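In the lab's daily routine, each protein ends up as an entry in a very long ledger. A line of letters takes care of the sequence, but it says nothing directly about the fold. The fold becomes a row of whole numbers, each drawn from a learned catalogue of backbone shapes. The protein below has been through that process, and both of its lines are reproduced in full:
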Amino acid sequence: MKTKLIGAIDELYQSVSKQKVFTGSDVWKWFRDSAEVYLKPDALNYIICLSDGYLDFNHNIQIERPKRTYISYRQVAKLRETPNWKQKFHTEKHGLLEIGEDFSNYNVKFLMVEITHRHMLDLEIVKEYWQTWLKSMGITDSQFLSTQDDPQIVIGKIIEFTSTE
């Protein structure tokens, strides 16, 4: 399985780099609806998310979603302009909506690789969204790799990530 994943990274990068519009995936919904099907309670589970970190959807989809189930570029930009953004993030509850699941008994390792870079502070803000949300589900082993245009660096990080326990 690891060999298949590693082999697909170059192809994935090529495909994404050609896209004009990023559709993304709904990681929030996957954890809410599907994670228990895929995670094994008696094994080490790796979740590798190649993403820009945003859960941004087109307007028609976003207006139908419950609040706090997405991370829009606009939300991050507003926080970025606030000198004490981290305090505001927590006091005004800007985080992702908790899904009420506890995955602490699944031994999950979560790696997110930022594949597009927008602003130098954005990764820190997006990390705060994800880490706060993951911790609410009992997932404390999370790593975030900053923007990587080189698939070989990403492959190396994935190999390193999946080789540690």
